[in-house]
Specification:
- Mo-molybdopterin binds at residues 85, 88-89, 143, 178, 226, 231, 242-244.
- The structure is a single chain.
- The protein is an alpha+beta fold.
- The chain has one domain: Sulfite Oxidase, Chain A, domain 2 (Alpha-Beta Complex), CATH 3.90.420.10.
- It contains 8 helices and 13 strands.
- It has helices at 21-38, 78-83, 96-100, 125-130, 158-165, 203-207, 259-263, 311-314; strands at 62-63, 110-115, 121-124, 135-142, 147-157, 173-178, 198-202, 212-217, 220-221, 231-233, 246-252, 287-290, 302-303.
- The longest helix is centred in the N-terminal third of the chain and has 18 residues, at 21-38.
- The chain starts with 20 loop residues before the first helix and ends in a 13-residue tail after the last helix.
- The structure holds the ligand Nc1nc2c(c(=O)[nH]1)N[C@H]1C(S)=C(S)[C@@H](COP(=O)(O)O)O[C@H]1N2 and molybdenum atom.
- Molybdenum atom is lined by residues 86, 143-145, 239-240.
- The site of molybdenum atom has 6 residues, from loops.
Length: 327
Protein backbone atom coordinates (compact mmCIF):
# COMPACT_ATOMS: atom_id res chain seq x y z
CA UNK A 1 0.00 0.00 0.00
CA UNK A 2 1.26 3.36 -1.00
CA UNK A 3 1.27 5.95 1.76
CA UNK A 4 2.07 9.58 1.16
CA UNK A 5 1.65 12.63 3.30
CA UNK A 6 -1.00 14.82 1.75
CA UNK A 7 -0.80 17.47 4.43
CA UNK A 8 0.23 20.24 2.09
CA UNK A 9 -2.62 19.48 -0.28
CA UNK A 10 -6.24 20.45 0.00
CA UNK A 11 -5.69 22.88 2.86
CA UNK A 12 -8.00 25.89 2.98
CA UNK A 13 -6.64 28.62 0.69
CA UNK A 14 -4.27 31.16 2.24
CA UNK A 15 -5.22 34.78 2.88
CA UNK A 16 -2.68 35.81 0.24
CA UNK A 17 -5.24 35.16 -2.46
CA UNK A 18 -6.86 38.55 -1.96
CA UNK A 19 -5.87 40.53 -5.02
CA UNK A 20 -6.74 43.96 -6.35
CA UNK A 21 -8.74 42.12 -9.00
CA UNK A 22 -11.31 41.40 -6.29
CA UNK A 23 -12.27 45.05 -6.30
CA UNK A 24 -13.50 45.30 -9.90
CA UNK A 25 -14.96 41.84 -9.73
CA UNK A 26 -17.08 42.96 -6.82
CA UNK A 27 -18.38 45.91 -8.81
CA UNK A 28 -19.24 43.69 -11.77
CA UNK A 29 -20.91 41.20 -9.51
CA UNK A 30 -23.05 43.89 -7.86
CA UNK A 31 -24.14 45.12 -11.29
CA UNK A 32 -25.05 41.58 -12.25
CA UNK A 33 -27.04 41.05 -9.07
CA UNK A 34 -28.86 44.35 -9.71
CA UNK A 35 -29.68 43.23 -13.25
CA UNK A 36 -31.14 39.99 -11.96
CA UNK A 37 -33.18 41.79 -9.32
CA UNK A 38 -34.50 44.22 -11.94
CA UNK A 39 -35.49 41.60 -14.52
CA UNK A 40 -38.64 40.56 -12.69
CA UNK A 41 -40.57 39.66 -15.84
CA UNK A 42 -37.86 37.30 -17.03
CA UNK A 43 -37.17 33.78 -15.87
CA UNK A 44 -34.68 34.13 -13.02
CA UNK A 45 -31.76 32.89 -15.08
CA UNK A 46 -32.61 34.59 -18.35
CA UNK A 47 -30.79 37.79 -17.47
CA UNK A 48 -27.60 35.97 -16.51
CA UNK A 49 -27.11 33.97 -19.73
CA UNK A 50 -23.42 33.34 -20.19
CA UNK A 51 -21.92 36.20 -22.12
CA UNK A 52 -18.99 35.13 -24.28
CA UNK A 53 -15.68 36.57 -23.10
CA UNK A 54 -14.43 36.43 -26.72
CA UNK A 55 -11.17 34.64 -25.89
CA UNK A 56 -11.58 31.23 -27.51
CA UNK A 57 -13.61 29.59 -30.30
CA UNK A 58 -17.37 29.84 -29.86
CA UNK A 59 -19.20 26.72 -28.68
CA UNK A 60 -22.86 27.61 -28.33
CA UNK A 61 -25.27 25.39 -26.44
CA UNK A 62 -29.06 25.47 -26.23
CA UNK A 63 -30.19 26.18 -22.67
CA UNK A 64 -30.94 22.80 -21.09
CA UNK A 65 -34.54 22.11 -20.13
CA UNK A 66 -33.58 19.28 -17.75
CA UNK A 67 -34.92 19.95 -14.24
CA UNK A 68 -32.12 21.10 -11.96
CA UNK A 69 -29.65 21.69 -14.79
CA UNK A 70 -29.64 25.47 -14.46
CA UNK A 71 -29.16 27.16 -11.12
CA UNK A 72 -30.43 30.76 -10.95
CA UNK A 73 -27.44 31.84 -8.86
CA UNK A 74 -25.08 34.49 -10.23
CA UNK A 75 -22.28 33.13 -12.40
CA UNK A 76 -18.75 33.04 -11.05
CA UNK A 77 -16.73 35.54 -13.11
CA UNK A 78 -14.79 34.04 -16.04
CA UNK A 79 -11.54 35.29 -14.50
CA UNK A 80 -12.09 33.13 -11.40
CA UNK A 81 -13.36 30.12 -13.36
CA UNK A 82 -10.21 30.17 -15.48
CA UNK A 83 -7.68 31.56 -13.01
CA UNK A 84 -8.26 29.54 -9.85
CA UNK A 85 -7.96 25.88 -10.80
CA UNK A 86 -7.01 22.45 -9.63
CA UNK A 87 -5.24 20.61 -12.44
CA UNK A 88 -2.35 19.01 -10.60
CA UNK A 89 -0.64 17.81 -13.77
CA UNK A 90 0.28 21.48 -14.27
CA UNK A 91 1.20 22.26 -10.66
CA UNK A 92 -0.45 22.34 -7.25
CA UNK A 93 -0.83 26.10 -6.88
CA UNK A 94 -4.24 27.48 -7.87
CA UNK A 95 -2.58 29.80 -10.40
CA UNK A 96 -0.34 27.11 -11.96
CA UNK A 97 -2.87 25.66 -14.45
CA UNK A 98 -3.63 29.08 -15.97
CA UNK A 99 0.13 29.69 -16.27
CA UNK A 100 1.18 26.26 -17.54
CA UNK A 101 -1.73 24.59 -19.34
CA UNK A 102 -1.08 26.42 -22.62
CA UNK A 103 1.44 23.61 -23.13
CA UNK A 104 -1.33 21.01 -23.38
CA UNK A 105 -1.78 19.90 -27.02
CA UNK A 106 -5.50 19.43 -27.63
CA UNK A 107 -5.23 18.39 -31.32
CA UNK A 108 -5.08 15.71 -32.50
CA UNK A 109 -7.18 14.22 -29.68
CA UNK A 110 -9.14 11.04 -29.34
CA UNK A 111 -10.87 9.15 -26.55
CA UNK A 112 -10.77 5.38 -26.31
CA UNK A 113 -14.06 3.98 -24.97
CA UNK A 114 -13.75 0.29 -24.19
CA UNK A 115 -13.89 -2.43 -21.56
CA UNK A 116 -17.19 -4.28 -21.01
CA UNK A 117 -18.98 -2.92 -24.07
CA UNK A 118 -20.37 -4.44 -27.23
CA UNK A 119 -18.74 -1.89 -29.53
CA UNK A 120 -15.43 -0.59 -28.21
CA UNK A 121 -13.98 2.22 -30.27
CA UNK A 122 -11.86 5.31 -30.37
CA UNK A 123 -13.63 8.64 -30.95
CA UNK A 124 -11.85 11.56 -32.56
CA UNK A 125 -12.62 14.87 -30.83
CA UNK A 126 -14.17 16.13 -34.09
CA UNK A 127 -16.70 13.27 -33.96
CA UNK A 128 -17.39 13.75 -30.26
CA UNK A 129 -18.24 17.40 -30.86
CA UNK A 130 -20.97 16.26 -33.30
CA UNK A 131 -22.23 13.23 -31.41
CA UNK A 132 -25.16 14.97 -29.67
CA UNK A 133 -26.70 18.43 -29.33
CA UNK A 134 -24.70 20.85 -27.18
CA UNK A 135 -26.53 22.20 -24.13
CA UNK A 136 -25.69 25.00 -21.75
CA UNK A 137 -26.04 24.02 -18.11
CA UNK A 138 -25.31 26.22 -15.14
CA UNK A 139 -23.97 23.97 -12.40
CA UNK A 140 -22.55 24.60 -8.97
CA UNK A 141 -19.11 23.02 -8.59
CA UNK A 142 -18.09 22.35 -4.98
CA UNK A 143 -14.44 21.60 -4.34
CA UNK A 144 -13.60 19.33 -1.41
CA UNK A 145 -11.36 22.17 -0.17
CA UNK A 146 -14.40 24.26 0.74
CA UNK A 147 -14.89 26.69 -2.14
CA UNK A 148 -17.48 26.65 -4.87
CA UNK A 149 -18.20 28.23 -8.23
CA UNK A 150 -21.22 28.58 -10.53
CA UNK A 151 -20.16 27.72 -14.07
CA UNK A 152 -22.06 27.78 -17.38
CA UNK A 153 -20.87 24.57 -19.01
CA UNK A 154 -21.46 23.50 -22.60
CA UNK A 155 -21.75 19.80 -23.32
CA UNK A 156 -24.12 16.85 -23.44
CA UNK A 157 -24.91 13.94 -21.11
CA UNK A 158 -22.15 11.35 -20.83
CA UNK A 159 -24.96 8.80 -21.39
CA UNK A 160 -25.07 9.87 -25.07
CA UNK A 161 -21.51 8.65 -25.54
CA UNK A 162 -21.89 5.50 -23.42
CA UNK A 163 -24.96 4.44 -25.42
CA UNK A 164 -22.82 4.44 -28.58
CA UNK A 165 -20.58 1.64 -27.30
CA UNK A 166 -23.41 -0.53 -25.89
CA UNK A 167 -22.44 -1.36 -22.28
CA UNK A 168 -22.68 -5.06 -21.43
CA UNK A 169 -24.77 -6.35 -18.53
CA UNK A 170 -21.56 -7.15 -16.63
CA UNK A 171 -20.43 -3.48 -16.64
CA UNK A 172 -20.98 -1.99 -13.17
CA UNK A 173 -18.55 0.94 -13.04
CA UNK A 174 -16.93 3.45 -15.38
CA UNK A 175 -13.28 4.47 -15.12
CA UNK A 176 -12.12 7.85 -16.45
CA UNK A 177 -8.50 8.45 -17.37
CA UNK A 178 -6.95 11.86 -17.99
CA UNK A 179 -4.12 12.66 -20.36
CA UNK A 180 -0.65 12.08 -18.86
CA UNK A 181 2.07 13.60 -21.02
CA UNK A 182 5.37 14.30 -19.23
CA UNK A 183 6.54 16.49 -22.09
CA UNK A 184 3.79 19.07 -21.44
CA UNK A 185 2.76 18.42 -17.81
CA UNK A 186 5.51 19.50 -15.39
CA UNK A 187 4.01 17.94 -12.25
CA UNK A 188 4.05 14.40 -13.66
CA UNK A 189 7.63 14.06 -12.45
CA UNK A 190 6.82 15.30 -8.93
CA UNK A 191 4.70 12.39 -7.84
CA UNK A 192 1.98 14.17 -5.85
CA UNK A 193 -0.48 11.65 -7.27
CA UNK A 194 -0.24 8.40 -9.20
CA UNK A 195 -0.58 9.40 -12.84
CA UNK A 196 -2.52 9.28 -15.02
CA UNK A 197 -5.24 11.03 -13.01
CA UNK A 198 -7.98 8.43 -12.72
CA UNK A 199 -11.55 8.70 -11.50
CA UNK A 200 -14.61 6.50 -11.42
CA UNK A 201 -18.38 6.39 -11.18
CA UNK A 202 -20.93 3.65 -10.72
CA UNK A 203 -22.59 2.96 -14.09
CA UNK A 204 -25.95 4.38 -12.96
CA UNK A 205 -24.21 7.57 -11.81
CA UNK A 206 -22.42 7.80 -15.14
CA UNK A 207 -25.72 7.33 -17.02
CA UNK A 208 -27.57 9.95 -14.94
CA UNK A 209 -28.77 12.82 -17.16
CA UNK A 210 -27.02 15.41 -14.94
CA UNK A 211 -23.60 13.80 -15.56
CA UNK A 212 -22.16 16.03 -18.24
CA UNK A 213 -19.44 15.52 -20.79
CA UNK A 214 -18.30 19.13 -21.09
CA UNK A 215 -16.52 20.63 -24.08
CA UNK A 216 -16.92 24.29 -23.22
CA UNK A 217 -17.82 26.99 -20.74
CA UNK A 218 -19.12 30.52 -21.06
CA UNK A 219 -20.18 29.79 -24.68
CA UNK A 220 -16.65 28.93 -25.82
CA UNK A 221 -14.48 25.81 -26.01
CA UNK A 222 -12.85 24.84 -22.70
CA UNK A 223 -9.75 26.75 -21.72
CA UNK A 224 -6.90 24.26 -21.29
CA UNK A 225 -6.74 24.85 -17.53
CA UNK A 226 -10.37 23.73 -17.20
CA UNK A 227 -9.72 20.39 -18.89
CA UNK A 228 -9.72 20.89 -22.66
CA UNK A 229 -10.76 19.46 -24.98
CA UNK A 230 -13.29 17.50 -22.90
CA UNK A 231 -13.86 16.72 -19.24
CA UNK A 232 -16.43 15.27 -16.95
CA UNK A 233 -18.73 17.37 -14.73
CA UNK A 234 -20.59 15.55 -11.95
CA UNK A 235 -22.30 18.38 -10.08
CA UNK A 236 -23.43 16.50 -6.94
CA UNK A 237 -19.93 15.21 -6.17
CA UNK A 238 -16.80 16.98 -4.99
CA UNK A 239 -14.91 18.61 -7.83
CA UNK A 240 -12.13 16.05 -7.98
CA UNK A 241 -14.56 13.46 -9.43
CA UNK A 242 -14.84 15.65 -12.54
CA UNK A 243 -11.73 14.46 -14.37
CA UNK A 244 -10.21 16.73 -16.99
CA UNK A 245 -8.69 16.21 -20.45
CA UNK A 246 -10.05 12.68 -20.84
CA UNK A 247 -8.33 10.16 -23.10
CA UNK A 248 -9.96 6.93 -21.99
CA UNK A 249 -13.32 5.78 -20.63
CA UNK A 250 -13.45 2.15 -19.58
CA UNK A 251 -16.46 0.13 -18.45
CA UNK A 252 -15.53 -2.40 -15.78
CA UNK A 253 -17.03 -4.85 -13.33
CA UNK A 254 -15.02 -3.95 -10.19
CA UNK A 255 -15.00 -0.56 -8.48
CA UNK A 256 -12.01 1.22 -10.03
CA UNK A 257 -9.19 2.65 -7.92
CA UNK A 258 -9.04 6.42 -8.18
CA UNK A 259 -6.07 8.78 -7.84
CA UNK A 260 -7.27 10.57 -4.70
CA UNK A 261 -8.51 7.41 -3.04
CA UNK A 262 -5.11 5.80 -3.64
CA UNK A 263 -3.29 8.84 -2.27
CA UNK A 264 -5.37 9.25 0.90
CA UNK A 265 -8.05 6.56 1.31
CA UNK A 266 -9.30 7.84 4.67
CA UNK A 267 -9.88 11.30 3.22
CA UNK A 268 -11.25 10.56 -0.24
CA UNK A 269 -13.67 7.74 -0.80
CA UNK A 270 -15.02 6.39 -4.06
CA UNK A 271 -18.41 8.10 -3.86
CA UNK A 272 -17.40 11.59 -2.73
CA UNK A 273 -20.93 12.93 -2.81
CA UNK A 274 -21.11 16.48 -1.48
CA UNK A 275 -22.35 16.00 2.08
CA UNK A 276 -22.34 18.73 4.75
CA UNK A 277 -22.87 16.07 7.43
CA UNK A 278 -19.73 14.09 6.68
CA UNK A 279 -16.66 16.10 7.62
CA UNK A 280 -13.36 15.59 5.88
CA UNK A 281 -10.99 14.15 8.55
CA UNK A 282 -9.18 17.50 8.69
CA UNK A 283 -11.99 20.04 8.19
CA UNK A 284 -15.74 20.52 8.19
CA UNK A 285 -17.73 20.31 4.96
CA UNK A 286 -20.72 22.16 6.45
CA UNK A 287 -20.24 25.38 4.50
CA UNK A 288 -18.43 26.87 1.55
CA UNK A 289 -16.97 30.07 0.15
CA UNK A 290 -18.35 31.14 -3.24
CA UNK A 291 -15.51 32.41 -5.40
CA UNK A 292 -15.89 35.81 -7.05
CA UNK A 293 -18.58 36.99 -4.66
CA UNK A 294 -18.71 40.53 -3.28
CA UNK A 295 -16.73 40.67 -0.08
CA UNK A 296 -14.05 38.28 -1.30
CA UNK A 297 -12.55 36.24 1.51
CA UNK A 298 -14.70 38.11 4.03
CA UNK A 299 -17.99 37.26 2.35
CA UNK A 300 -20.20 35.09 4.49
CA UNK A 301 -19.68 31.41 3.85
CA UNK A 302 -22.86 29.70 2.70
CA UNK A 303 -24.19 26.39 3.96
CA UNK A 304 -23.28 23.45 1.77
CA UNK A 305 -26.32 21.54 0.57
CA UNK A 306 -26.67 17.75 0.55
CA UNK A 307 -25.60 16.47 -2.87
CA UNK A 308 -24.55 20.07 -3.60
CA UNK A 309 -28.23 21.00 -4.04
CA UNK A 310 -29.03 18.21 -6.51
CA UNK A 311 -30.70 15.86 -3.99
CA UNK A 312 -34.06 15.98 -5.77
CA UNK A 313 -32.40 14.62 -8.89
CA UNK A 314 -29.89 12.13 -7.48
CA UNK A 315 -30.66 11.11 -3.88
CA UNK A 316 -32.56 8.04 -5.09
CA UNK A 317 -29.33 6.63 -6.51
CA UNK A 318 -28.21 6.05 -2.91
CA UNK A 319 -31.38 4.71 -1.27
CA UNK A 320 -30.49 2.39 1.59
CA UNK A 321 -26.79 3.27 1.56
CA UNK A 322 -25.02 4.54 4.67
CA UNK A 323 -23.45 7.71 3.28
CA UNK A 324 -21.14 8.05 6.30
CA UNK A 325 -19.62 4.72 5.44
CA UNK A 326 -19.68 5.18 1.67
CA UNK A 327 -18.14 8.68 1.66
N1 LIG B 1 -6.94 15.47 -14.59
C1 LIG B 1 -7.33 16.18 -13.53
N2 LIG B 1 -8.64 16.43 -13.37
C2 LIG B 1 -9.07 17.17 -12.31
C3 LIG B 1 -8.16 17.65 -11.33
C4 LIG B 1 -6.78 17.37 -11.54
O1 LIG B 1 -5.89 17.76 -10.74
N3 LIG B 1 -6.41 16.65 -12.65
N4 LIG B 1 -8.61 18.37 -10.24
C5 LIG B 1 -10.02 18.15 -9.85
C6 LIG B 1 -10.48 19.10 -8.83
S1 LIG B 1 -9.89 18.88 -7.25
C7 LIG B 1 -11.43 20.07 -9.10
S2 LIG B 1 -12.09 21.03 -7.85
C8 LIG B 1 -11.87 20.33 -10.49
C9 LIG B 1 -11.63 21.78 -10.82
O2 LIG B 1 -12.16 22.10 -12.09
P1 LIG B 1 -12.05 23.60 -12.62
O3 LIG B 1 -10.60 23.98 -12.57
O4 LIG B 1 -12.59 23.59 -14.01
O5 LIG B 1 -12.85 24.45 -11.70
O6 LIG B 1 -11.19 19.52 -11.45
C10 LIG B 1 -10.96 18.17 -11.06
N5 LIG B 1 -10.41 17.42 -12.17
MO1 LIG C 1 -11.38 20.02 -5.88
Amino acid sequence: MLIRSQDKDFLPPPASEITPRAVWQQRRQLLRLAAIAGGASLAPWASQAAERPGKLAALPGARSSLPGATTPEPLTPYADVTGYNNFYEFGTDKADPARQAHRLKTRPWSVQVDGLVGKPRSFAIEDLLKLAGMEERIYRLRCVEGWSMVIPWVGYPLAELLKQVQPLGSAKYVEFVSQADPSTMPELRAGVLDWPYTEGLRLDEAMHPLTLLAFGLYGEVLPNQNGAPLRLVVPWKYGFKSAKSLVRIRLVEQMPRTSWNLAAPREYGFYSNVNPEVAHPRWSQANERRLGEPGGLFAKRRPTQPFNGYAAQVAQLYTGMDLHRFY
